[in-house]
Specification:
This protein has helices at 2-12, 52-67, 74-82, 115-118, 140-150, 192-204, 209-216, 220-232, 248-257, and strands at residues 29-32, 41-44, 93-97, 102-106, 154-159, 165-170, 236-238, 244-246. The chain is 37% helix and 14% strand.
Length: 258
């Protein structure tokens, strides 16, 4: 069984197993709602090797949501999906709604008893076995929540029916009217550090928070927050690998300040 294979790998360290995974109904599934009046497209993700499963599930969800018009950052998705390892990936279903801007991640695991503490930095239920595959320092959900908040979005944690947890990521609909942001004059003045990050992306090309942090001698979490803020302004864009690159609007902004 798919779930048994995952548990064996974590508990018995079967990292070198070469047998192909068996197709199983318990594999994580992604349901994509193209229309509110039509049944969803369902994509199964049968990868059984960790951390490959986390990478594959996060990337596949990001790509499918992006095709619908999603603005949810890749790293937000990955941070939340990493937390699923606490539930041994039990009956995971990821639902993509509202043109990709509502993503609901549900499982049938043990659930989260204290939901308020779950989004505070430093609180973690990860034991030694789990920490071999994820950070396990209580940073995943807090980072995801703060990143969405910077984009006027919401992270919500609820109990699943009967058992488990549902984490919902939501951003404002792209159909809502927004102020035009086609030139530098219409944008707020950026803090000096964020301006430096734009220049770095122009020089370095697609880069992640760690690389930006090293270049500016700041922490990766600080550079990540700045990148998310710049992305919410449309000045940088995300890649499937979690890196950021400067956008056409970002180039126009730099032209306006030079």
């Amino acid at each position: 069984m798919f779930l048994d294979e995952i548990k064996r790998q974590i508990l018995d360290d079967h990292d070198n197993a070469t047998d192909p995974p068996n197709k199983d109904d318990t594999a994580p599934r992604i349901a994509v709602y193209d229309s509110a009046t039509a049944p969803p497209r369902v994509v199964s993700v049968p990868e059984t090797r960790l951390p490959d499963l986390i990478d594959t599930l996060a990337s596949r969800t990001y790509d499918l949501a992006k095709q619908q018009g999603s603005r949810v950052p890749y790293m937000v998705l990955r941070e939340v999906i990493e937390n699923l390892i606490h539930a041994w990936f039990s009956d995971v279903v990821i639902t993509i709604l509202d043109d990709g801007n509502t993503i609901r991640i549900a499982d049938r695991g043990p659930g989260i008893t204290d939901k308020q503490k779950a989004v505070r930095p430093g609180f973690s239920t990860a034991g030694p076995d789990v920490k071999r595959y994820i950070k396990g320092v209580g940073s995943g959900l807090p980072i995801a929540q703060e990143s969405l908040s910077l984009m006027q979005g919401i992270l919500d944690i609820e109990d699943n029916l009967d058992q488990g947890t549902v984490v919902t990521l939501s951003l404002p609909s792209t159909h809502e009217p927004t102020a035009p942001t086609t030139n530098a004059a219409s944008r707020p003045a950026l803090p000096e550090r964020q301006l430096k990050i734009l220049f770095l992306l122009l020089e370095l090309g697609p880069s992640g928070p760690s690389r930006i942090g090293r270049e500016l001698a700041i922490s990766a979490s600080t550079s990540y927050r700045d990148l998310v803020a710049l992305e919410s302004l449309g000045l940088v864009g995300s890649t499937t690998e979690g890196r950021r690159s400067i956008t056409k609007e970002g180039l126009q902004y730099l032209d306006g300040v030079l």
